[in-house]
Amino acid sequence: MTVTSTHKDVDALTLTFVAEFDAPVGRVWQVWEDPRRLERWWGPPTWPATFERHDFTVGGSSLYFMTGPNGEKAYGWWRITAIDAPHRLEFDDGFADENGEPVTTMESTHAVVTLEPAGTGTRMVTVSTFASAEQLEQLVKMGMEEGMRQSMGQIDALLAEGEA
């Protein structure tokens, strides 16, 4: 079923995605924990991700880039701030330069991912919190909302592949 709803709340400075999957919570958790699985869905189909580092521990960091249809690269980073496996993940998310250094001209966002049983499957709620209404609008204009919908839309096929 994948993304069932999105909600942009300018007053709360949040963008929320609710997705449902026909897999147990532990299996859905693996698409965040395992960098090889993560890179198969983090980024829309035309901008696939490559995770060069994914230290999935509190205080750990991730470094990735997405490659566009013409070979251009967009770099990003995460800093893991909380993990309650397999139900909750929090991380700061920002843009990076080609050396993996955080871009200081753009504020980072903070993401909170919660996974909970929903019938025989899992409901995943991802809430991104922004530093300002301007940042929220800027990232939506850059395609974040549609890009995340497309990205999360790839998780069902990944889960259908089995335990691998």
From TrEMBL:
Recorded superkingdom: Bacteria
Domain Activator of Hsp90 ATPase homologue 1/2-like C-terminal: from-to ranges: 22-159
CDD domains: SRPBCC_CalC_Aha1-like
Transmembrane segments: none
Family recorded in the similarity comment: Belongs to the AHA1 family.
UniProt-recorded name of the protein: SRPBCC domain-containing protein
Organism: Saccharopolyspora erythraea (Streptomyces erythraeus)
